[in-house]
Amino acid sequence: MEKIHDTVIIGAGAAGLTAGIYASRSNMDSVLLEKFVAGGQAALTSFVENFPAFPDGISGYDLMENMRKQAANFGLEMKTAEVTAITKNKDVFSIETKSEEIKSCTIIICTGVRPRKLNIPGETELFGRGISTCATCDGAFYRNMEVAVIGGGDSALDEGIFLTRFASKVHIIHRRDKFRAIPPLVRKAEENPKIQFHTDTIVTAVNGVNSVESLSLKNVKTEAVSTLKASGVFLYVGLIPNTEMFKGMLELNKQGFIITDTNLATSVDGIFAAGDVCDKPLRQIITAAGDGAVAAYSAGKYLEMLE
Amino acid sequence: MSKPIEVTDDTFQATVLENSLPVVVDFWATWCPPCRILGPILDEITDDYAGKAVICKVDVDNNQALAQKYSVMSIPTVLFFKDGEIKEQFVGALPKDQIAAKIDAIL
User: Fold this and answer.
1) Mutation target vs A (from B91, B94, B99; most A CBs, 10 A cutoff)
2) What is the DSSP-derived secondary structure letter of residue B20?
3) CA–CA gap between residue A147 and residue A164 (Å, rounded)
4) How many angstroms away from the CA of B60 is the closest CA of chain A?
5) Would an 8 Å CB–CB cutoff place A137 in contact with chain B?
């Protein structure tokens, strides 16, 4: 007879790996599916200072590698596979990947988010040729040059401040007049003499041949257009939930994040969601990990109810 | 497991440009998170393509002339060479099968 797992976890970021730790430690027959490599967005973070129990901070890569090892130590089965379809027959889900079909009584969705793009002229052509989404990686290439950071959240300001180590000037371009970033970060940026703010301003094009030379800007209040000379552009314009395949299946909010109850149950019995992919006020590594624990516990309770 | 060949400003010509096999060159640095994600994937590819393609790494901190010559402004940047010419390239970490497909296309 075909094997039916207790739970299939989709996505191996902080939420998925923690769900995996909790599920496998409580002897649930669990499989974790990840389309790329374990670690999620957190593994791309150069340095994590706010995850408890690391008083000196830890690199995002090392933190996530530790989580992966911890899950593996409890015997969690991890596979590299992209889920292509999910169907439910009575109380059993079929999870299809490119190479196989896996059956499970519950699913924990931890597919996370990805960086938003601007979809403006020049963005695709000049990506990696002056346009970057990783200031830690690429900041050092812009020693004594002018760069622009686009966005108004914590990441935009944090990375903008970081870039002042290298760049002669950092232009922070934000489409509103108020910043979403936490006040101390905004203050720190305002006090930095190398940072110049361009608020109420959007970027309409990135210009250059083979490398970034300038940005086309437009003030959304006055409609005034201008050109800003810059050799580098760093994008921090928000996040898109990876929920395209759940549209029409699960209840999502307007932005596409999955709506859950306090037990992290979704609108479909047996499907739970955890981490950044959920509709929630704070998206951090610690909140994703917390979600993973709750979702695994809830999936376990649901299984008891089925039996 | 084999490791990619560490190439420098001095050895690039002989190892990459004059190689009779296709050569994959990863421009990277120790402190770049996506480079660390790509590292183990390229280690596996080095084994998979032994004898068919050569996988190399250039540390951009120690080999700035090369990074400049190839206008590397983001890392990781991966260039695919054949007969001394760039045939394909990408920026950022990619899954193994996508990288393999790019090598297969120039074999």
Assistant:
1) B91
2) S
3) 9
4) 10
5) yes
Q: What is the pLDDT of residues A33-76, one digit of tens each?
A: 999 999 999 998 888 889 999 999 999 999 999 999 999 999 99
pTM summary value: 0.89
Contact assessment for residue A243 and residue A259, using Cβ atoms and an 8 Å cutoff: no
Enter the tokens of residue A284: 């951090």
* Nearest residue, CB atoms, A138 vs list B40, B75, B90: B75
- Asked if A42 and A110 count as a contact pair (C-beta separation under 8 A), the reply is no
Q: Are the C-beta atoms of A7 and A57 separated by less than 8 Å? A: no
Nearest-angstrom CA–CA distance, B85 and A232:
27
| Cα–Cα nearest to A257, from A83, A114, A60 | A114
Contact across the interface for A141 and B72, Cβ inside 8 Å: yes
- Residues of chain A in contact with residue B32, where contact means CB-CB under 8 angstroms, are 134, 136-137
**A134 CB near a chain B CB, below 8 Å?**
yes
- Is the Cβ–Cβ distance between A9 and A23 less than 8 Å? yes
Catalytic residue from among B7, B24, B35, B99: B35
Higher pLDDT, A14 or A136: A14
B56 noted as active-site residue: no
What is the complex's ipTM, to 2 decimals? 0.84
Q: pLDDT, tens digit, for every residue of A235-274?
A: 999 999 999 999 999 999 999 999 999 999 999 999 999 9
Q: Does A43 touch chain B (CB under 8 A)?
A: yes
- For residue B76, whether the previous peptide bond is cis, meaning omega lies within 30 degrees of 0, is yes
Report whether B79 contacts B100 (CB < 8 A).
no
Cα–Cα dist A89/A95, whole Å: 11
Residue A181 DSSP code = S
Place of tokens 């599916």: A33
